[in-house]
Amino acid sequence: MKHCAGQIKYLVAIKELTDVDEYVRCVNISKHLGVSRPSVSKMLRCLANSGLVYEDFCNSVVLTPEGEKAVSEIFSSFNEVYTFFHNFLKLPREEAHEQSIRFITEFPQDTCERLKLIVKRTLKKKS
User: Fold this and answer.
1) At 22, is the secondary structure helix, strand, or coil?
2) Residue 114 CB coordination number (10 Å)
3) How confident is the model at residue 92 (pLDDT cuts 50, 70, 90)?
4) CB 29 within 8 A of CB 14
5) Mean pLDDT of 86-100
6) Are residues 28 and 79 in the same domain?
7) How many CB atoms lie within 10 A of CB 48?
8) Could you read off the pLDDT of 17-43 as tens digits, one per residue?
9) Does pTM surpass 0.85?
10) 53 DSSP 8-state letter
11) How many domains does the chain have?
């Protein structure tokens, strides 16, 4: 996965919003991420140029199959990182979620993979 931190944040936001509502609009993403609507439009143009969202994102933002694949890769690390912050460090759900997003977007992918393996091994030992 070779996406910048900003792309990852937006892809995660699109996925989370899609899970709640079928139609994701720029204003929803803006509120979700706490950024301006022009910033959302700029990033969506970047995501569309990268083939991660469909070009016609004015009415509703929809991930392409490549975008779905990217989100799947992101969330493959997210679940274990979230488990680490919430279950191991005992952070509240919302804070664990926020920290997990920050971790997977700011740390190198190999670091995320290493943490993922540690969490899986620890959980396996506990069961």
Assistant:
1) coil
2) 12
3) very high
4) yes
5) 95
6) no
7) 17
8) 999 998 999 999 999 999 999 999 999
9) no
10) B
11) 2
**Which residues constitute the domain of residue 85?**
69-126
- Answer for the pair 86, 52: CB distance below 8 angstroms, yes or no: no
Two tokens, residue 74:
């992101």
Residue 40 belongs to a domain with what CATH number? 1.10.10.10
Number of other CB atoms surrounding residue 57 within 10 Å? 20
Q: In 3D, which of 25, 29, 23, 27 has the Cα closest to residue 11?
A: 29
Q: What are the contacts of 47-56 at 24+ separation with CB within 8 A?
A: 47/7, 47/10, 47/11, 50/3, 50/7, 52/3, 52/7, 52/11, 53/14
Residue 15: CB partners within 8 Å, gap ≥ 6? 63, 71, 75
pLDDT for residue 1: 52
Here the tokens at position 64 are: 């392409």
